[in-house]
Automatic annotation (TrEMBL):
Keywords: FAD, Flavoprotein. The keyword Flavoprotein applies. Residues 2-339 form the FAD-binding domain. It comes from Pseudonocardia xishanensis. It holds the Pfam family FAD_binding_3. It comes from the Bacteria. InterPro entries: FAD-bd, FAD/NAD-bd_sf, RIFMO-like. This is 4-hydroxybenzoate 3-monooxygenase.
Amino acid sequence: MRTQVAIVGAGPAGLLLSHLLDRAGVESVIVETRSREYVEARIRAGILEQSTVDLLRDNGLGERLDREGDVHRGIYLQWPGERHHLDFTELVGRSVAVYGQTEVTKDLGRARDAAGQQIVYEVADTAVHDLETDAPFVTFTRDGETVRLDADVVVGCDGSFGPSRAAVPNPQTWERIYPYSWLGILADVAPSTDELIYAWHPDGFALHSMRSETVSRLYLQVPNGTDVADWSDDRIWSALSARFALDGWTLNAGPITEKSVLPMRSFVQQPMRHGRLFLAGDAAHIVPPTGAKGLNLAVADVALLAPALAALVRDEDSTLADTYSDDALRRVWRCTHFSWWMTTMLHTSTDPFDARLQLAQLRWVVSSEAAARELAENYAGLPIRF
Ligand code: DHB
């Protein structure tokens, strides 16, 4: 097989890249180890930054998002006895949309179907080759047969455990493993709040998010190594009720339809390019979930990469391709800092001094307009090139 851009990974980064390349007149083929059903059902965060919403809309992907997504003006920050609203629209003139990554992935899949995009699902043994030449290629097996996919460029959108990241020789890497995890649930119950609640509590952080008028998404800070089997539905609802407790407010409980434990880490690998291999999304960086930056960062990478690759393969102009890694990493590090900052401000440790610092910082964020604006600017998201 031959194409202009070989994309490894059919998650949101790979699908969006093929969509943007197609609009620029560049052909691509995507290979993916999982099945389409698995990729489309994979539950991830559900907050789209303003720039992500704008990009999806501008590229013909906003129709269902505009119909079913819910625009949120801000968030609530809470600690025992107090809940405060931060209004991003007032603070920075930007907002966010609540729309699950699963839905973004389905919309992208449908748009790719309509365009006749070639996506090869359920491949094995994917490997990338000859990256330092002008004729790189990808090999994989499918139904027991080995396939070779030749391309001008290979893009790794295959996450942190895929073969692309590992194919970059001697990268610089940075990692922080946090000493806690999240227990996430989906429940068939109307959200008990109009906008997300981020709650600091001595028992641990809790987050009330949502997916629709009838589906709530909630998270609890739990110790690393937690087994979901130890968390009955009753135990989950009572822990959530305790952490969100506020006079005159009640948390609606309902049937839990999904339960899982998420480890939390920060990771950055640079550069995001090696010869004719480019990395985008989780293949180059991981953020802890607090602040919901993962998908938005992947979208921003791809928004920079698509025009860079189009210029490279169509016009043999490497100017943007040569600055891609540095351009993307500037934003990656900004979001890495923001995600780390939100995480460390909100998750309880065993240190009572840390707790006092966190409470002082939370009070500062809701009482100083400058501090509130800083959170709002980062949460609602920076322009793609900031
Ligand atoms: C969600 C996840 C997050 O990490 C976050 O900060 C906000 C929302 C979510 O899954 O809805």
